[in-house]
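FIELD: query
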Amino acid sequence: MKGIRPHGNQEFDVRRIFLKEDAERIKELQAHASEFEQHYPQHMKWLEMALGEVVTGKRLAFGIFSLAFNTQRQPVVELVGCTILKPRRYSNVIEMKNYFIRKSSRGRGYGKALYKAVEEHCARVGYDQIESEVPCSEISTIGFFHRMGFHITEMQRSPYKPSDYHYRIEKLLVPRYHGDSYDLYELSLWLVGYYYGFSNIKQVQLGKHFEFELRTSAFLSAKNGSGELTLTGNALVVESSDKDVSPWFSDMINSLQRSLLIIFTGSGFNPKGLELPRDVKVIEEQSIHRELGHLFSFGPPRFSREKIAGMVVPITPEYFSRIISSGKNVLSYFKTGPMGKYLRQGNRIMIFVEPTPDQPTGGVRAIATLQEVLNGAPEYIWQVFNERNPVLTHDEYLTFARNKHDVIGLYLTKFVQVETVDYSTLKKEVLYDEPDPLDIGHYYLSMEMVSRFLQRMRPLNHLAQQYEYDVVLSFAKEDRHYAEPLAALLIQNGVQVFYDKYEEANLWGKDLYQHLQSVYRDKARYCVIFISKYYAQRLWQHHELIQAQARAFRENREYILPVRIDNTEIPGINETIAYIDLNDIPIEKIAQILISKISTKS
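FIELD: result
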């Protein structure tokens, strides 16, 4: 996703172009451009061919759009520049063609902004070199690309106009890790190959073990002299989620008789009781994020993988309008992998609609619940989702998926259109973070972020829920260790929960007596009460209970859902009310029961 961003007194938006409508805008922009007419006599014919390949996904195109006003003083988004890229087969080189900024928009920083976005994209998806060509007479263009870091490799006669000469130019890119930032195994493979320079990498045990080599010139012995020496080694990957690695880990270390052993460990790994050889190199995940985070395309993780509760997914205004017009609240959508592979059923997906004239920074305009997520080859993903109301047509999907190794398919339910939460508000009031607009479509959401969004969202259509919360939790502070995991499990599964830790910003400065009265009496579908000896002693919990009882009496239906920690009797909660006993049923099972009850009621 790319948002309209301030640049001096200008506002601009750089985004990939693949729709026919935008391709037509490129033709209009470049029609009768003197630079092309002078050096490329068949330019418009070539452009027609190239844009056809853009629409089918064989080439890439990027455009830079400026916010302006038409003659009626209405805001419009204008295309002011573009470029077309052609991946070179069987290599990590991409060729940049047709770089153009319209004359009236030059000197305002658009050219640099467009190039930086293109370079960022190329580095992220794995290209290590950009090549291009410039007519030798275009001194200002040559100077521009020199400032962008390109150097001239050769001068050659133009294949387009015999009397012209061109400079071939190129720029090497710093390799980036563009995998999922939570995937330690893929990160380890990348570090060993790209950062440490080892080769011939072979996966031995997926997710845990791979081999590598390093060939180098070395002095072998007085008898044999100098020669090529091949160092072989192994890497073990121990995720923080591996519960019991000691037996496997010890056996692997004892069995690996190699000259080099590297161990990558997750943040929760505890090596206590494990004997490691002296020459073993241990690399901790946190140190990678701290020291090499600048090489991550999408930045290092901001919270543990267990806290993932959703994601922001960008969508074009055209596709969003298509969803609204369909009138359906279930749909399938697709995003580029691998970011998103750790989403789970029940997570919340915020639909971020890209900029429009009335929303120049873009914003979240809908929210949905994730029913199923799959990461795999493009052909397989389409087979799974093509009959589940996909937003894209088959041709559009083929264009989107071309040249991609993997695609993530998202099957979404409970789609609800909401009042727009713009990019600035999303950063300040929901994310508490400053993600680059280019990164927003790769942004995992924590339970706290989802909860803050659910608090402030205002549904627009009839699919909106009657209550602000599905569940409110009432408990004594001594019993927080029971309430907190239940709240986390519910949030992960898309349930709207009132839990005080998730409400700190919202509660600050409020009259808590009046506010909590409203929350526990009016704003939730159910109230879960953790009954214990501590609960009976607390004044605030007594206040919450009174409000919950008033609601239950008023509606004459089940509202209070008791969870017994012990046998303490609580005045007002009759012994005849069915309850769940924590001594018999674990928190995980209680969460499942509650989710089922909410779903049935919905």
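FIELD: remark
Residues 539-555 form the longest helix (17 residues).
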